[in-house]
Design brief:
477 residues; ARM-type_fold; 24 helices; Ataxin 10; Ataxin-10_domain; Ataxin-10/CTR86_families; cell division; mainly alpha; elongated; 2% strand
Length: 477
């Protein structure tokens, strides 16, 4: 490639400072590296020169961190650092040779150390943030599709860089650090996350604060959800708001058009065990909502979202059998429905507003939504399962459920047999209409039982995204 034009040392008889010459040369290189052919023909000596400038400028930052009085003269150094990172970032785009050359010059260590110094600087914010962002972009591009570079980034950046960047007030810094984490993670490094749960939880928090950012979402769906051990450890340590965020993402994943793969089924069976166990233990927390002072209780809201997850999981054949056999899940669901029914009847509270769930109702409030999903789960647990059908009869729950539903052909109890005096089992009234057939037990799709359907029930911001973020490439910061 053609070398960038070098500016003369003197212009019109005036000495040009070396920093300005370096800055102009770096800008020329950054522009050249936008072209693939220039990246592929770049000599290694150019990268050495760029790193020499970066190290010299980094020394000025280090001095300013030690002596705040030196910070006033940092503007030119920050400009050079920013352009060095832009140049190296562009050089790494889809160029394995350049990634290796730059990494072998110890650029990853230099960049990470400099980013750590940025946290201590007290200078003009925008100039510092621009250098910070470009440094993260460089780390993301050098690690892209390059295992050796990913290992180098992980060695130098984990865990400190992620701990400090994932909860940074600047949204771009959060996004770019998430990009680096996504690019560097693999199955072996997931073990490191289990020992640094705060990083994993910070990713969930980043998705909650920035649902429009693709990277935190993809870290959770493509990495975290593949590790039942990590999810279980995270869930135990999370706040209730963070749990709701994680559960929303799982709902979006389970509701996606693509079926679970053979490899995913055992993983989601483990997730089902965690959520069924938690629901059995904690489902009565939802009764706190009957008190006006707890109408926004986060613990109760997390319990509601647990039920949503179990409902969506019960739609999948691969997960349904496990949930049907889970000890105490059906019993606790029926008991809770009975408590809600009695509570709503005996007093004026949030559950009093929904005397029954209509087949065509648009679930508009939290109480109605919870009750409808509870009935839906009970119906699905009885689907083609004689043991659970008999258990519901033994618990005298048929009339309880009918009291909370309008008995029509889309009632969720199509799978529950009703005993007659002579011992024969009869289908419920209307179960032979339209979809069911006499005595046909089936799961209850939300569009057929009048409960919250998949589209209207999708949590805000939790849509499944098939689009993958592109590399940073030539984005200017």
């Amino acid at each position: 490639m053609a070398a960038p034009r070098q500016l003369p040392a003197r212009v019109s008889g005036i000495m040009v400072p070396a920093a300005i010459q370096d800055l102009e040369a770096l800008r020329a290189l950054t522009a050249l590296f936008k072209e693939q052919r220039n990246r592929e023909t770049a000599p290694r000596t150019i990268f050495q020169r760029v790193l020499d400038i970066l190290k010299k400028s980094s020394h000025a930052v280090e001095l300013a961190c030690r002596d705040p009085s030196q910070a006033d003269g940092l503007a030119s150094s920050l400009q050079l650092i920013t352009e060095c990172f832009r140049c190296l970032r562009n050089a790494c785009i889809e160029c394995f040779v350049n990634q290796n050359s730059i990494r072998n010059l110890d650029a990853v260590c230099i960049a990470v150390d400099l980013i750590f110094l940025f946290r201590e600087l007290r200078v003009e914010q925008e100039a510092l943030l621009t250098a910070f962002r470009c440094g993260l972009q460089f780390l993301g591009n050098i690690a892209s599709r390059n295992e050796a570079s990913q290992s180098a980034v992980w060695l130098h950046a984990f865990p400190e860089l992620f701990l400090s960047c994932l909860n940074h007030p600047d949204k771009k810094i959060v996004s770019y650090s998430s990009m680096i984490l996504f690019t560097s993670l693999n199955s072996a490094r997931m073990k490191d996350l289990e020992e640094n749960l705060n990083i994993a939880i910070n990713v969930v928090e980043a998705h909650y604060k920035q649902p429009e950012s693709e990277w935190p979402f993809l870290i959770i769906t493509d990495h975290f959800l593949k590790s039942p051990e990590l999810v279980k450890a995270m869930y135990a340590k999370m706040s209730n708001q963070e749990r709701v965020t994680l559960l929303d993402i799982i709902i979006a994943k389970v509701m996606a058009d693509e079926p679970l793969t053979r490899e995913e089924v055992p993983v989601y069976l483990s997730h089902a065990e965690l959520f069924a166990s938690t629901f059995v233990d904690q489902c009565r927390l939802v009764l706190k909502l009957t008190s006006e002072q707890y109408t926004d209780d986060e613990e109760a809201l997390a319990t509601i979202r647990l039920l949503d997850v179990l409902c969506e999981m019960s739609v999948h054949d691969d997960l349904l059998g496990y949930l049907q056999a889970y000890p105490g899940l059906l019993d606790r669901g029926v008991d809770l429905l009975r408590l809600i029914h009695v509570t709503g009847t005996d007093a004026t509270n949030i559950f009093s507003a929904c005397s029954y769930i209509k087949a065509d109702s648009n679930v508009a409030n939290m109480a109605e939504g919870f009750k409808s999903h509870l009935i839906r789960l009970i119906g699905n647990l009885c689907y083609k399962n004689r043991i659970n059908q008999d258990k519901v009869n033994e618990m005298d729950a048929i009339h309880l459920i009918l009291d909370n539903c309008r008995p029509d052909d889309r009632n969720p109890l199509g799978g529950v047999r009703h005993p007659e005096p002579d011992g024969r089992q009869q289908p419920k009234p209307g179960s032979d209409c339209q979809h069911g057939g006499a005595g046909a037990g089936r799961r209850v799709p939300p569009e057929e039982n009048g409960l919250r359907g998949r589209e209207e029930g999708r949590p805000a911001g939790s849509e499944v995204r098939s689009r993958r973020p592109s590399a940073v490439n030539q984005r200017s910061v």
